[in-house]
Amino acid sequence: MAPPHHRLVRQVFLQALGGIYLIAFTSLRRQVKGLYGSRGILPVRDLLSSPRMTAMGHERYLWYPTLLWLDASDKTLVRGLRAGQVLSLAVMAGLAPQAALTGLWALYLSYVSVGREFLSFQWDALLLEMGLLGILTAPTGLRPGPGRYEPSAAQVVLWRALVFRLYFGSGVSKLKSGDETWRKLTACDYYYETEPLPNRGGWYAHHLPQKVQKLSTAAVLALETVGPFLALAPRRLRLLGFWLFSGFQGILIATGNYGFFNVQSLALGLWLLDDASLRRLLPAPPPARPRPWWRTLGAWLPAAPFLVLGANEVLARFNRPRSSPRWLEWLEMRARPLRAVNPYGLFAVMTVRRPEIAIEGSDDGETWLEYTFRYKVSDPERAPRQVAPHQPRLDWQMWFAALGSPPVWLLAFLLRLLEGAPDVLKLLAINPFPERPPRYIRATFYDYRMADLETHRRTGAWWNRERVGLYLPPLSLAPGGTGSRLQWYAGE
């Protein structure tokens, strides 16, 4: 029997990877000045010129690998994302895919390295890991099409190992967390109501019978703990894994908003297929050339570190921390700033309540008006929206902020609202102070619950909310000084 072929799989996957990069760069371009510009929430320029960075010396270039060291102006931030869009289109068109993917990886790493909380999502790390493997896998040449040579066994193994780690990491993290909702199969009773950015499908799914929720929870655990081994199984079982994982991602897309994560996962599943699976949809490519021995060796050499680091990451989930060989520690240290091999695992602990933060401004300290976010849960009568594959990073981080104490970036956000920073205000849907910024600002805590079907039919409300108290007391701009600062407002 002839060995399976993967040139069509590689070609379709790389075009999909270019599309994912296009989504990521386009989504970030809409937000970059408000998040990272000179008058944004976390200015990149301030981070790179900070005393902490200066004290690091040349080490800062190793731990923060970014092209923005050359220039972090607002224009450069936008131009870098435009360049990413152009290179993404080149990959989708099959133009110099290896060179274009190298540029895309370097650009995206440049933003993630200095992006802090707003670029710390698992799909950002996954895109960089996929980008690196894409560079290793892509054929050379200006218009290589499916490529002259078959992908090597090393390259195919790398992709299937990534599929395994992506799903298995999520499953193991749920089992090892000791979370009661996963142990008692009640996680889906809470999931749709407490996920960061619900959509309308998730709202309706929340009202399914409890037996369905329990069965769904068990299915998720099975798919994420047993299912990943299908990625390493013989062909027929791999095809089963492809359809199971694709269906799982389809359900996640229909019931939630996870940026471009689900699209990434769907694209990765292509590596569970072979060319024979695609020939009903795509014409067969011309015969491949025999691959020289040195190309096979050249594929295994760069693949080895990825496989070793990936295996170590999986094993570390089961073993107690112990000292690793010095060469492995060195390899991990060098790979970490590049996000070359990453741990994955969403919803290890299920949140069972939905706290939300409302930002309110006032001119007199008595009458307070609420800022409206574009996508975050706020107005109980506003229907949950379909946002993905766009990633509204401020709205997402507001969900995380509500689960703990106020993070530093939230105080910076409130400061920009008091200053009336235009780029930050563009991240919001409605600014209740269009003429001038408010004198005071505060953060109020609410508890949200999805309205039941009868209440929704009767009133049109999608949510019930109850005011809990203040998350942050009123703040105002401190007078004097060389820069804007916050101070507590105790009333007049």
UniProtKB/TrEMBL annotation:
Keywords: Endoplasmic reticulum, Membrane, Transmembrane, Transmembrane helix
Family matches, as Pfam families: LMF1, LMF1_C
Protein localization: Endoplasmic reticulum membrane
Main location class: endoplasmic reticulum
Domain Lipase maturation factor 1/2 N-terminal residues, every copy: 120-278
Topology of the protein relative to the lipid bilayer: Multi-pass membrane protein
Classification via InterPro entries: LMF (IPR009613), LMF1/2_C (IPR057433), LMF1/2_N (IPR057434)
Coiled-coil regions, chain positions: none
Domain Lipase maturation factor 1/2 C-terminal, chain residue ranges per copy: 341-473
Transmembrane residue ranges: 12-29, 86-108, 240-273
Top-level taxon in the UniProt lineage: Bacteria
Protein family (similarity comment): Belongs to the lipase maturation factor family.
Protein name: Lipase maturation factor family protein
